Amino acid sequence: MNKAIYPGSFDPVTLGHLDIIERTSKMFDRVIIGVLNNKSKSPLFSVEERVNMLKEVTANLPNVEVQSFEGLLIDFVRKNDARVIVRGLRAITDFEYELQMAQTNRVIAPEVDTIFLTTNLRYSYLSSSIVKEIAEFDGEISAFLHPAVAEKVREKLTARR
């Protein structure tokens, strides 16, 4: 069985992320979305909330699983007996960082490959940070997020105020 890991913080999961997830699910027998629990950051959503949102919006993809992890990505990849990491690229600036990470991971784990998928052009500008900033100023975010996720963002920001 060929298995891929798609890691990220997904705070929140955007339509760009979902595009990569759906395309990856067509290429691999099993896709594990790894939701990073980075304790040095203060995300809008807890890791549990992000995992649950991803489970909800990928429920139609039977070969996709969602797990949280902390620590090194390579350790998570090995724990799940995967051999491929999938990363999405929006722009050349993403490529520079992602290439550096892929090369570092390759030194640590030569058995693991990283593949890059370019995002659909309609999402090439999109990031979770941009969506959160728009939402914080009560801007319209429905063009960027699954409806269920957009509602959760609005609820979270309303509760914070």
TrEMBL record:
<dbReference type="InterPro" id="IPR014729">
    <property type="entry name" value="Rossmann-like_a/b/a_fold"/>
</dbReference>
<comment type="function">
    <text>Reversibly transfers an adenylyl group from ATP to 4'-phosphopantetheine, yielding dephospho-CoA (dPCoA) and pyrophosphate.</text>
</comment>
<keyword id="KW-0808">Transferase</keyword>
<protein>
    <recommendedName>
        <fullName>Phosphopantetheine adenylyltransferase</fullName>
        <ecNumber>2.7.7.3</ecNumber>
    </recommendedName>
</protein>
<dbReference type="InterPro" id="IPR004821">
    <property type="entry name" value="Cyt_trans-like"/>
</dbReference>
<dbReference type="GO" id="GO:0015937">
    <property type="term" value="P:coenzyme A biosynthetic process"/>
</dbReference>
<feature type="binding site">
    <location>
        <position position="41"/>
    </location>
    <ligand>
        <name>substrate</name>
    </ligand>
</feature>
<keyword id="KW-0067">ATP-binding</keyword>
<comment type="subunit">
    <text>Homohexamer.</text>
</comment>
<keyword id="KW-0548">Nucleotidyltransferase</keyword>
<feature type="binding site">
    <location>
        <begin position="9"/>
        <end position="10"/>
    </location>
    <ligand>
        <name>ATP</name>
    </ligand>
</feature>
<keyword id="KW-0460">Magnesium</keyword>
<dbReference type="GO" id="GO:0005524">
    <property type="term" value="F:ATP binding"/>
</dbReference>
<feature type="binding site">
    <location>
        <position position="98"/>
    </location>
    <ligand>
        <name>ATP</name>
    </ligand>
</feature>
<feature type="binding site">
    <location>
        <position position="73"/>
    </location>
    <ligand>
        <name>substrate</name>
    </ligand>
</feature>
<dbReference type="GO" id="GO:0005737">
    <property type="term" value="C:cytoplasm"/>
</dbReference>
<comment type="similarity">
    <text>Belongs to the bacterial CoaD family.</text>
</comment>
<dbReference type="GO" id="GO:0004595">
    <property type="term" value="F:pantetheine-phosphate adenylyltransferase activity"/>
</dbReference>
<feature type="domain" description="Cytidyltransferase-like">
    <location>
        <begin position="5"/>
        <end position="133"/>
    </location>
</feature>
<feature type="binding site">
    <location>
        <position position="17"/>
    </location>
    <ligand>
        <name>ATP</name>
    </ligand>
</feature>
<keyword id="KW-0547">Nucleotide-binding</keyword>
<keyword id="KW-0963">Cytoplasm</keyword>
<keyword id="KW-0173">Coenzyme A biosynthesis</keyword>
<dbReference type="InterPro" id="IPR001980">
    <property type="entry name" value="PPAT"/>
</dbReference>
<comment type="pathway">
    <text>Cofactor biosynthesis; coenzyme A biosynthesis; CoA from (R)-pantothenate: step 4/5.</text>
</comment>
<feature type="binding site">
    <location>
        <begin position="123"/>
        <end position="129"/>
    </location>
    <ligand>
        <name>ATP</name>
    </ligand>
</feature>
<dbReference type="Pfam" id="PF01467">
    <property type="entry name" value="CTP_transf_like"/>
</dbReference>
<feature type="binding site">
    <location>
        <position position="9"/>
    </location>
    <ligand>
        <name>substrate</name>
    </ligand>
</feature>
<feature type="site" description="Transition state stabilizer">
    <location>
        <position position="17"/>
    </location>
</feature>
<feature type="binding site">
    <location>
        <position position="87"/>
    </location>
    <ligand>
        <name>substrate</name>
    </ligand>
</feature>
<feature type="binding site">
    <location>
        <begin position="88"/>
        <end position="90"/>
    </location>
    <ligand>
        <name>ATP</name>
    </ligand>
</feature>
